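<goal> How does this chain fold?
<body> The protein record starts here
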Amino acid sequence: MTAGDALADRAARLRARSEQLRESTARRSRAKEWAREQIASVRGTATSDDGLVAAAVDSDGTLLGLDLAPRTRGADPEGLARVITAVVRRAVADARSRVHDVYEVLHDEGVLAEIPLARPRPDGEHLSVPVGQAPDTPARSAPPRHRHVGDDHDEGPPSTWLRRAT
């Protein structure tokens, strides 16, 4: 092999590596854009065990809606406040779980080295009190259910970046 052939071979390898890096960067950019869109559309929801209180929050945990059934009129204000607080916390845990799922997909695909958001604890730490129950006798609520990315959508992440670059 001549010196010219060696240089041409090295240049070809460098071009190939450069193309691989460009494709990898483009793949990561598409994945991050997909994640931004998914996270922006996250809505966490929860309902009290008796169905009288429902809440919806966005991906940041900002309260978007709070529904109180007419039967909550005349309820003990302290008990109702506890129920509302518990329902909102469960809605936030639901949203946080959905955001975590998006990060998990990025991590599994090698786009993120670490998942920056811990999954909410599924140990039932959120207390709720049925509206008619005295506030000093709390009942355990159901833990937030685990939802997978794409549960509410017909399509999942773009297939163009689901394959790991070789």
Summary: Strands lie at 43-47, 53-58, 63-68, 127-128, 139-140. The mean pLDDT is 77. The chain is about 40% helix and 15% strand.
